[in-house]
Fold this protein.
Amino acid sequence: MNAPLRRNACPSLAAPMPTGDGLLARLSFVSGGLSPDNLALVAALAERHGNGLLEVTRRGSLQIRGLTAASAERLSADVAAAGLDIRTGTAIDASALSGLDPACAGDPRRLAERLGAALDRQGLSLRLAPKVSVVIDGGGCLTMDEVLADIRLVASANGWTVEVARCDGQSSAGRVLDEAEALGRAVALLRAIAGLGRTARAKNLPDACVSAVLGNFSRNRRPRAAGQPLDTFELRGGRSGVGIALPFGMAPSSSLSALASAARDEGIEEFRFAPGNALIAICRGSNGARKIRDAAERLGFVTDAGDPRRRIAVCAGAPACASGHVDAREVAAKLAAGDAVKNLAGRLHVSGCAKKCAEPSLFAYALVGRRDGAGIEDAGGREIGFVTGEDAAAGFERFLLARGVDADEGGRARLENGT
Ligand code: SF4
């Protein structure tokens, strides 16, 4: 692989990103979810065209790894032939349970479609930085406060509030608007970002520009308590939802095929992709939800929010990724089975190399592979320990046990705040 690895690129099916294990393509489905048959199909395509590893990201997007330039084209053709509608252009993430969650205000999915169409009409997706993203949060049982975004539209009983990310890590929020007005102002802000150049983000907008679009704005909206996806949900029309997470955000195609097969047996209607590396299985009644949850647990998926695997963010690592110096997933699995993670207040990050593809916004400590072993870093990225490659899991565990339970979570979010 000769193309450089880019930390700030954003992969799509049309423009997959080079990684240490080949090209990576991110798929966001226009409908927001996949039937069990289509989940099985996507898993089979990942096996046929990639290295058979699939990820559901922290934002709730599906990623296929290990593609080549030629196989990425064949994947794209097969996805189109199967009639799977893939969203292209600027990332717009809407609430996972749009249209199903009775507590979700507004219609986030419809607004996402309208916004995407407006950006396409104005050619803005091509002019915006690939990393620019929009979140459309209808609230309800799964809020999206933990999903970073340049522009955020947040629904309430009275309408929509448009928020803009600022360089101090806070956000500027305008007054509550009706849907059409909120849409227009979000487009105006995105046009202003595009006007600053191909690498600009919302945080680069001058305050004067933000106030010209939003009028008087307030700062620092207090995040709501984020609903977490590993739960059961009572949904509209007598439906139920149950959250299932991929262990460390990644699973082989065989596991997802088996999950799809179990879902067919239990009458699951669709899977929605949710922030937090999760799928929400949607079914009629609560019986099927319970059965698919049990099946997922048997297949090795995570179904309990307290599972220690939920506390460790991991990249593909060696041997799947040629850039990896440590087997990040094996290290993480050993850590999850040990005592240190159970006792630790904060989350951990295990990275196969210094690129830190899977770095979470908040973490207490990171283990980062390097040629001669692995460095242990604190939340600010300072190396405060070292272990050899063979001793990576046991050495990191010893370090954590010695540190005790009161680790401070910081990391990138804190750095971005300048604190
Ligand atoms: S961080 Fe992990 S997945 Fe990313 S290039 Fe390094 S080893 Fe590969």
